[in-house]
Amino acid sequence: MTTAASPIHRAWAASFGEDAAFLKSHTELIVLGDEKGLARVAIAPAWQGRVMTSTAGADAGPSFGWINRELIASGKLLPHINAFGGEDRFWMGPEGGQFSVFFAKGAKFELADWLTPAAYDTLPFKVVRQSRNQAMFASQFTLTNYSGTQFEVAVKREVRLLGTRAAWKKLGVKPAADVSLVAYETDNKITNAGKDAWKKETGLVSIWILGMFTPSPSATIVVPIKAGPESALGVKVTSDYFGSIPPERLVVKEDVIYFSADGKFRSKIGINPKRSKAVLGSYDADNKVLTVVQFNQPAGITDYVNSLWKIQDNPYGGDAANCYNDGPPSPGAKPMGPFYELESSSPAAALAPGKSLSHIHRTVHLSGSEAALDGVARATLGVSLADIKAGLKK
Question: Is the pTM of this model over 0.85?
């Protein structure tokens, strides 16, 4: 979905049409479109109904998602993770800790022992139904956590391309004539399909949605946070997932965080539910692309699974939102991408048999003049484009 817009600014690595053709040569692809045929969303059922990429400019328009062409073209499956790419993929947490679903019992919390469950790495989701602007997928599987607890999980996942009017309304911004945009959301529901209740004492799981995007030297992640004392709201950011982050890559202010999205330094940050404003963003200044991610965050709920790679004192003191910048895992090593990620999570799912939990994650890409994009950034992220561009500068 799009409005009349100025020309796309970026010399993109690939157009949407080129990426869609590449993906179709390797896997089934569902392409959603708006009435004008400009806004499009490409979804791969074989990769858990994953949104691989999107555009506001039809086949010739820029392809906004990061796609791992090398891995996909190889036809091979890797042991730890198959980072096929994609702007919105379904995962489940926690990643680390005594209730992790990525580490087997007794494993070390190290990259060599980290394994992404096949249920949301390599196994397909079933296509339940599809239309011009929506597609629904389903799956059912078993997860076992680090402590040995088993979860029988049923998943329903719907991808919806939003109409122009709905997209601007969700952003809370008056439509801008010289901005093109594409907006979609995924509605993800997990159900306890087993006979036993999911309890805090033996571990809980969560819905975890991650979007992978192409890095740029000028790309900066923006995370609005609630201002206030740590005694009431907790730390402003958790930044030690993979060691400390140099100060030129992470700047934490009273009500906003700036984080590099250049794909050159492996690092991750997390925002707890008391600090989170249920919105994330990024701005690629060279290419004049503003990305806004919104997600539902139930008021008053603070139990979120903790994904830190260690045995935890507080396994439900986790994050509502995360951001990741890829880079070499060790000096001289090859990065997974590179890419950067904008992520959101549901609360921990303490579900009785047959009960469900849903989580909505919305992605909007906007391209156009900086004057027009500035108004959107101020309204959605609380900062100007000038603030963002200066955010990491000392």
Answer: yes
